[in-house]
Amino acid sequence: xxxxxxxxxxxxxxxxxxxxxxxxxxxxxxxxxxxxxxxxxxxxxxxxxxxxxxxxxxxxxxxxxxxxxxxxxxxxxxxxxxxxxxxxxxxxxxxxxxxxxxxxxxxxxxxxxxxxxxxxxxxxxxxxxxxxxxxxxxxxxxxxxxxxxxxxxxxxxxxxxxxxxxxxxxxxxxxxxxxxxxxxxxxxxxxxxxxxxxxxxxxxxxxxxxxxxxxxxxxxxxxxxxxxxxxxxxxxxxxxxxxxxxxxxxxxxxxxxxxxxxxxxxxxxxxxxxxxxxxxxxxxxxxxxxxxxxxxxxxxxxxxxxxxxxxxxxxxxxxxxxxxx
Length: 325
Description:
Layout: H1 2-8, H2 12-25, H3 28-36, H4 44-56, H5 60-75, E1 80-81, H6 82-92, H7 106-112, E2 116-119, E3 122-125, H8 128-135, H9 145-160, H10 171-179, H11 189-199, H12 203-208, H13 227-241, H14 254-261, H15 275-278, H16 283-294, H17 319-323
Antiparallel strand pairs: 1-3, 2-3
């Protein structure tokens, strides 16, 4: 340990990587030899290089899965949950989103867990230097940004073309897919898509130029596909399976659903609202928030009786709502 501390030059991350590598390797005799020969990495770049060297020694499937996880982690602007990565791996392997993807990630986390970690259910790099190393010349461009975007685009297109969006999908099949996490994208990716479309200032102008849309700003013209309809069905099924209040049913599924989709599982129904994506931890808080959307507007004409209190679109939500707890 003194040699590791000396080589670290005060870098806690370096010490952590080396200690984790020793634990993961499991061969203390081999590691003792490395330390006695002073064959330790001289810095973070060399430490990352040894981790990648270890990944390259995996059998082909494990090596490809590890590289795919690193690519998805590096290519997404927001952290992905472990279930989203499971689904991405399943689709990249040619599997259907409707089949269970449980167990795909457990070994991979152990295999490339030195350079990535799970924090509050999200997969992220242990440090921003790991991201820079994988995409930079130090690693001989182990990951290529263009290839990452092409791979992620392919996964998204395959997902959008899957039977998840089949409106004729039977209820029991759809319910099963919700429980095994196949529809995780509906909570984040689809929520972001709907929110961005609803709040994009130039979207409706651009939409009017397309022959497939009418010139009117109608909600039914916003999405000509089955995405929004399926998302509505998905949220309805999720809320049906959740217990309301503190008393839980004997066949309670709350733990399973919140383990997959997160604690803030009760979403606002308005696509233009921030809480359409973020959601709330309880139905009561979501319902109180929805009352702000449903209040009547104050009429500016004299002599008409209208409630004085209302909340205008785009107004700031309260700190209590923002906490969502």
